[in-house]
């Protein structure tokens, strides 16, 4: 395993940023610290990252990050993580927003090529991968973010969304709910489809439990509010006793619609759980349970993989990182 900047920092008892300064801007570092870092570099046999140096030596110093919905705090956290790692290599991140629209996505991919970015991190809005393959073949690194394409050679960082969907609905079943609604976005999004697979798996394990699927055109607060309005309009007996929303923005909209005019009590009448665990989830009028994705770490790791992909130094199996989701229980599903 190659010695990393992080190993050198630990051995010298300094931050990764200080090691980076010793390597690139030595004049900014105290002589005694330079000596300590150099001793650690020699002792560990550290060899600096050639791809990073190539990037600094005049090739593009930027990468493109293309997210599905820039207004979703989940992607803001992903972008923060990617930018944090890129900064260690003195690179910049150009942010694009596909707004879940394949046409906008294609336009941004063209723009990133014109800008001669060195790599692209993308949460695809389109199932079509020909453009991404062309980018890879032209020497531009591509890492899928919060998404993977099984059986492909694409590098990717994702979360086990099937497990995440299972955790969400198993929790609702564990508190005694049996008429469960899944409120999702377009099933063409692998994240949504996989969360539903997990939800179905949990329901199938409990005799008498039912799962209703309500598919919305997008994963937004407005569409969550529309779905909630439809549920409130039903007679009480026709409503679910629990809702699993495919992401927290949908869940926030559902909570607004259900609790407006005090029509429905959460969790007493309808328990509600979201997905992502964005910061707002804990501060909604009824603190919301959610399935946590390590968004910032996803972004950081995706950038890390992009650098590795450009080194060409990938071991078998190194191209895919999959994090585990985590159940976060708050008042919206208690009892
Ligand atoms: O953008 C839609 C959703 O996909 C986000 O909320 C996040 O869950 C991602 O996986």
Ordered list of secondary-structure elements with their pairings:
Blueprint: H1 5-12, H2 16-24, H3 31-44, H4 50-56, E1 62-67, H5 73-88, E2 92-97, H6 102-114, E3 119-122, H7 130-137, E4 141-145, E5 155-159, H8 161-174, E6 179-184, H9 190-204, E7 210-215, H10 221-232, E8 242-245, H11 248-259, E9 271-273, E10 290-292, H12 295-311, E11 320-323, E12 326-328
Parallel strand pairs: 1-2, 1-3, 3-4, 4-5, 5-11, 6-7, 6-8, 8-9
Antiparallel strand pairs: 10-12
Helix pairs in contact: 1-2, 1-3, 5-12, 8-9, 10-11
Bound molecules: alpha-D-ribofuranose.
Alpha-D-ribofuranose is lined by residues 68-69, 72, 74, 146, 191, 219, 247, 275-276.
Helix/strand class: alpha/beta
Shape annotation: elongated
The count of domains is: 3
Query: What's the SSE pattern?
Result: HHHHEHEHEHEEHEHEHEHEEHEE
Ligands bound to this protein structure: alpha-D-ribofuranose
Helical fraction: 40-55%
Gyration radius, rounded: 23 Å
Structure summarized in a few sentences:
The chain is of the alpha/beta class and 335 residues long. The protein is 43% helix and 16% strand. It has a 6-stranded parallel β-sheet, with helices on both faces. It has a 4-stranded parallel β-sheet with strand order 7-6-8-9.
Structure description:
The chain has 335 residues and is an alpha/beta fold. The chain contains 12 helices and 12 strands. The chain folds into 3 domains: 5-48, 434 Repressor (Amino-terminal Domain); 61-159 and 295-323, Rossmann fold, CATH 3.40.50.2300; 161-293, Rossmann fold (3-Layer(aba) Sandwich). Strands 2-1-3-4-5-11 form a 6-stranded parallel sheet, with helices on both faces. Helix 1 (5-12) crosses helix 3, helix 5 (73-88) crosses helix 12 (295-311) and helix 10 (221-232) packs parallel to helix 11 (248-259). The chain is elongated and about 75 Å long. The termini are far apart. The mean pLDDT is 91. Bound molecules: alpha-D-ribofuranose.
């Amino acid at each position: 395993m190659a010695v990393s900047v992080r190993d050198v920092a630990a051995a010298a008892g300094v931050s990764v940023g200080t090691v980076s300064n010793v390597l690139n801007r030595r004049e900014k570092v105290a002589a005694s610290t330079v000596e300590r870092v150099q001793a650690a570099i020699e002792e560990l046999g550290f060899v600096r990252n050639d791809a990073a140096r190539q990037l600094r030596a005049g090739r593009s110093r930027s990468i493109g990050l293309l997210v599905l919905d820039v207004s979703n705090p989940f992607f803001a956290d992903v972008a923060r993580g990617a930018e944090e790692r890129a900064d260690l290599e003195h690179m910049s991140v150009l942010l694009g927003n596909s707004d879940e629209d394949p046409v906008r996505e294609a336009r941004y991919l063209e723009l990133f090529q014109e800008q001669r970015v060195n790599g692209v991190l993308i949460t695809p809005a389109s199932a079509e991968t020909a453009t991404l393959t062309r980018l890879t073949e032209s020497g531009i690194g591509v890492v899928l973010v919060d998404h993977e394409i099984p059986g492909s050679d694409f590098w990717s960082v994702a979360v086990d969304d099937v497990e995440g969907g299972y955790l969400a609905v198993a929790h609702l079943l564990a508190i005694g709910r049996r008429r469960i609604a899944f409120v999702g976005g377009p099933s063409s999004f692998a994240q949504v489809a996989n969360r539903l697979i997990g939800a179905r798996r949990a329901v199938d394990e409990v005799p008498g439990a039912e799962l209703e699927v309500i598919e919305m055109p997008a994963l937004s607060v407005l569409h969550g509010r529309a779905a909630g309005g439809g549920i409130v309009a039903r007679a009480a007996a026709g409503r679910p006793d629990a809702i699993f929303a495919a992401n927290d923005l949908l869940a926030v909209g559902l909570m607004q619609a259900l609790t407006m005019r005090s029509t429905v009590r959460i969790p007493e009448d309808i328990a509600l759980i979201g997905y992502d665990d964005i910061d707002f989830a804990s501060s909604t009028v009824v603190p919301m349970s959610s399935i946590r994705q390590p968004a910032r770490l996803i972004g950081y790791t995706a950038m890390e993989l992009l650098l590795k992909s450009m080194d060409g130094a990938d071991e078998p199996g190194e191209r895919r990182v999959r994090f585990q989701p985590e159940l976060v229980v708050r008042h919206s599903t208690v009892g």
